[in-house]
UniProtKB/TrEMBL annotation:
GO molecular function, one term: RNA binding
Keywords assigned: Isomerase, tRNA processing
Protein name: tRNA pseudouridine synthase
Enzyme Commission (EC) number: 5.4.99.12
Amino acid sequence: MTEVNPKVSPEELSNERPSKISKTLQEEGDFCEEEEEEKEAVDKSMKPGLQRYLVAVEYIGTRFCGSQQQLNHRTVVGVLQEAFHKFIGQPVTICLSSRTDAGVHALSNVCHVDVERVSKRKPGEVLPPHEPAVVRKAVNHFLQKEGDIMLTDVRSVPGDFHARFKAQERMYFYRLLNGPELLSIFEKDRAWHVSEELDLVAMQEACKVLVGHHDFSSFRASGCQSKSPFRTLEELSVLEMVSTPHFPSITEREQNGSNEEGQDSFCSKCKTGLPTGSISNDIMAGDSKNGADLGFGIRRRHRCYVITARSRSFLYHQVRLLVGVIKSVGTGDLKVSDVERILNARSVTAASPMAPARGLYLGHVKYELP
């Protein structure tokens, strides 16, 4: 892979326009293309003694120059390969299910790695494979100093199980924090702060236009290497959620449910999302519309909107371009009718500027595991 300019920071990479990003930096694209490509990518045979592990990993994307390995840059793959090397004493190759751009976070990205367990007392003697729990604990030991990446799950899989091509579905989340107040330092680089008021209903209607099987050329950044612009969005939705971190007092819990319901009711609402305009959301937003005095030192919380996108695979920067249009509908810069016009234009120049990387999270990669 061509070396990237070392003067470019992860933040600068994540905020570039699609037309300015080189192909060598291409990330945030899940490229499940064709069966022929899949057959080429899956290993035909494995060396005796090798064990393939499927590994789930979480990380804070703003501290990496993307996921794919690059010379002289800190990346997810580079850090993982170094940790595995320290564990087993020999180099390994990490194959990710989904690439993520610089600044994009992962609640659960997935990769596979082949590990040969060799005796340290008798060099050359191959031992039975490590148990997955041992692999997880050992690699996390070497990752603990990093402080921004860790293994969350490990499973032994057959040698022909490919993390990228066996993925049946990928789910992304995008967080929008809405309100005039400055963003909390606890939310720095974790969400897109939109100060203008957002129309939740309009954003939900915009999502409906984009769900389904379409030519997403208008939501495909320049340099995309996928053979086809067609993708099927199984889900594209937006809900208002509880802004985090949030620690409700007894009084607040009582205002969000009867005494009989108690804390369980409040937590349930936090998980499922809340209807716009509810008492709960007015409290979460700090009741800023009514100008209520919250007390000295208590900040007004932002409204938190979460956009969910679910599909087998995505085009390069597709999710961030989708979010850019949905946000523009929310602020009133675009109408819902404009979304269909942009989709039919089949040109990325018709879309709104894409959303910044810092609000995007790879949430889950689904498999049918053996």
